[in-house]
Amino acid sequence: MSHAHHHHGPPADGNFSRAFGWGIALNLLFVAGEAAGGLWANSSALLSDAGHNLSDVLSLALAWGATLLAKRRASEQYTYGYRGATIQAALLNAALLYLALGFILWDTIDHLRHPAPVNGPVVMGLAGLGILINGFTAWLFRRGQQGDVNVRGAYLHMLTDMLVSVGVVVGGALVYFTGWLWLDPAISFIILAVVGYSSWGLLRETVRLGLQAAPAGIEVAAVRRWLLARPGVTGLHDLHIWPLSTQDTALTVHLVRPNGDNGNQFLRELQHELLHEFNIRHCTVQLEDEFPLMGAHGCCDEQVALKS
User: Fold this and answer.
1) Is there a smaller number of Cβ atoms within 10 Å at the N or the C end of the chain?
2) What are the structural domains, with CATH classification, of the chain?
3) Where would you find the membrane-spanning parts of this chain (predicted)?
4) Residue 115 zone, left/alpha/beta (φ > 0; ψ -120 to 50; rest)
5) Which pTM does this prediction carry?
6) Closest Cα to residue 47, out of 140, 151, 144, 184?
């Protein structure tokens, strides 16, 4: 019986500290201007967009803090380090987003019940500025949005806000030229629907990560089939795949390899291929000559599956 533990270094995904800093600073200034303009212009669409942009500022700050915390070294008590903070930040960000949507919905209903004149040019001007700021911020995160749910969350939020600002510009123009005051809260409802719908996939993924489910891009059955196809492997049990952070995935497994020779070379190749086939960086593999006795921890279901 032999075992091996292997951990590749963290992925070289670039440093997004500058992007987070620029995004937070620009959006804070924009939120202040948009909120003031929304109150002056009496626009619920602007106020709803300002509220959502404020939640994005909090989201960027949490994601940035978690990213910095994840870089701290492991300790005696935190043996995996602090990388799990990125998952907790993503969960908190999703909760804050939907909480903000609830408050904005309440305000929009009030404006629909009590419509008031809207300053169209102010609405269009501020929303147009939002297109530039949110578009630029989304561009800052474009490189890392495929490999990290935190960065992808920032990217999607900013991209969504840019598109929403386009809608506010159109709405402001319609109210200005038609005088239909109900259009402003109606557009706010559309904004809420777009943001809620676009954020649902991110919320679902962060909940999965929080429950330590295998990351969305990894099919456990495919990993099991791949492991069973390795030279000399006749079975496996106790296969576990879970996220250490929003970027790093861990795997533990017991492989049955009767009379397996050159075990060290086998393990080196196995761990190298797991990284390139499935992007699993942290591997702990135990080699065994035979299955443990029936009833041993965690292996019964796996053995039945292999025999079927």
Assistant:
1) C
2) 18-211 (1.20.1510), 220-293 (3.30.70.1350)
3) 20-41, 82-106, 118-141, 162-180, 186-203
4) beta
5) 0.69
6) 184
